[in-house]
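WP5 quarterly update. Target: Auxin efflux carrier family protein. Source organism: hydrothermal vent metagenome. Length: 304 aa.
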Amino acid sequence: MYEVLAQMAGLILCGIFWRIKQPMGLAADDVRIRLTSLVYNMLLPALVLLVLWRAPLGLDVVKIAIVAAAGVLMGMLLGRIIYGWMNVPAAVAGAMIIASGFPNATYLGLPVLEATLGEWSRSVAVQYDLFACTPLLLTVGMMVGAAYGDGEKEQHPLYAMLKVPPLWAAIAALALNAAAIPMPSVIEGWLSMMAGAVIPLMLIALGMGLRWESFTLSSLPIMAPVVVIQLILMPILVLWLSQQLGLEGELLAAVVLEAAMPCMVLGLVICDRFKLDTALYASVVTLTTGLSMISLPIWFDILI
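C-alpha cells (predicted):
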C-alpha cells in the first residue's frame, strides 16, 4: 500500500508543482478546470462504460449503494450536529457539513482500489460514487448549500443529474450488461485507451486543486471534526453496515476503503455556487488528503 500511495503522491505532487511554478504562465486553477472537464465529460464516461458493461450484476450492487448512501448521510448528520453545537457562521457550517459527508470516491478512491486490489475493484469505486455519492451531492448536498449559503437559486436535482455524463454512461452500461450484449473488441480497445488516461489526469488535477496557501493553524479546531468523521468514523460505520449486509473478503475491503477516502474535491463546486466558505473547504480537502496517506494503509492492514 505504501508503494502504491507513493506513486500516486508523485502524480499529486506534479499538480502541486504546477500550482506553485505555473509553467508557461498557465494558472493551476485554469488548467485544472480544463483537465477535470475533459476527464468528467469524456474520459470518465468511457471508463464507466468499460467497467460496468462487463461487471457482474447482482445484489452486491444494491448493497454497495446502500452502505455508501448510509455513510454519506451519517457523515452529514454528524457534521450538522457538531457544527450546530460549535455555533460557527452559516457559510462555515455548510461547507463543513458537505465535507463531512462526501469522500473522494472517484478521483482518489478509484486509483487506490485499482492499484491495491486489481482491475475488478474499479466497478466498486464507480458504483460507490455514481449510485450514491454523486446523486446525494446533487440533491442533499445542494439542499445544504442552499440552506447555509446565499448564492444562486437551487436547481431541481433531476435537472442537475441530467448534466452528469458519467451517470448517463452508467445507465447505458447497465442496460447493455443486463441485455447480455457482448462488447465488440474495437469498442473495448477504444474505451480502454480513453480510460487509461483517467487516473493520472485525476491525480494531477487533484494536486492542482490542493490549496496550501489557504491553510491556517487557527482553522484546525474547525476542521478537526471533519477529519475524524471522514477518516475514522465513516469507514467504521460502513464496515459495520457492510458486515450486516453480508459483504465479505476483498469486496468488503474495497467498500470500506472507499468510505475511508478524504473529502471530495467536487464539493468545491457546491461551495462556490452557494457562497459557502470555499477557502476552508479547500483547506480541509488538503488536510484530509495529506492525512489519508497515513490512515489508508492502516485501514488496508486492518481489512486485508
